[in-house]
Amino acid sequence: MTSPQTWMITGAGRGLGRALTMRALAAGHAVVATTRGDHDLPDHDRLTVLTLDVRDRAAAVRAVESAASTLGSVEVLVNNAGYGLIGAAEEVSEDDARAILETNLLGPLWLSQAAIPLMRSQGSGHIVQISTVGAVGTMPMLGLYNSSKWGLEAFSEAMAAEVRQFGIRVTIVEPGALDTDWAAGSMRFAEPRPAYDSLRSQLFGTPDVPWPVSDESPGGTDPTDAADAIYACICSDDPRLRVLIGADAPAQVHAALAQRMEDYGRDPRYPTDERYLTD
Length: 279
Fold this sequence. Notes:
Layout: E1 6-9, H1 15-26, E2 30-35, E3 47-51, H2 57-71, E4 76-79, E5 84-86, H3 94-122, E6 125-130, H4 143-163, E7 168-175, E8 187-189, H5 197-204, H6 223-235, E9 242-245, H7 249-265, H8 274-278
């Protein structure tokens, strides 16, 4: 990709979304960055910042229309807005469940729906869904978060096959651990039940939620490095639907898939001949 393009990035106020915004600007692209609240994005002649709650379908449509009106088109849409939720399935309230599904699952759906007609009329476009390795295998206490990302990947995989005929490309990005405040400022917590205190201690080192916010780096891939890797994928002809980001991501995905294959393999009807599986 050498010519300037028009990008729209949600959840751009911090973390990976901010890093992607800065990477696209540095490469000469124009960006419409959406945030739900405060941000520290710099003033830039190729940056437009919009306030958007992605749960609001009508507002999502207006945001895409505004981006297209301001920039003339939207060639790359990055659905990055989202958050995590800690809570056992028994602990999660109706409000908890609805809020995370509306943000992490339905928000990208509304924005994709708004962008596809525009991209179809252009004859090209690229929709990038920021998922997680947690969409391949789950972790206790993150079930609703994992559910939101599994759902995101399900409709995105189907959508990729639906819109390919229009010249629209879909990429699902599966990062491992990122060095952001995802586990702090971007994390929400269900009301804890004492029955799960020992599991919380085992997983997180404390039974208390929300846990204390630490000034120490959480570790993981630097968001700038992750943004560079995602940008390189967007700029290439990489045909993959799913792209892993981070040194820890491949091993996590392999472990999750190996467990699933072990379960399936216990069915005597399951084909074990690799030649059969690839025919």
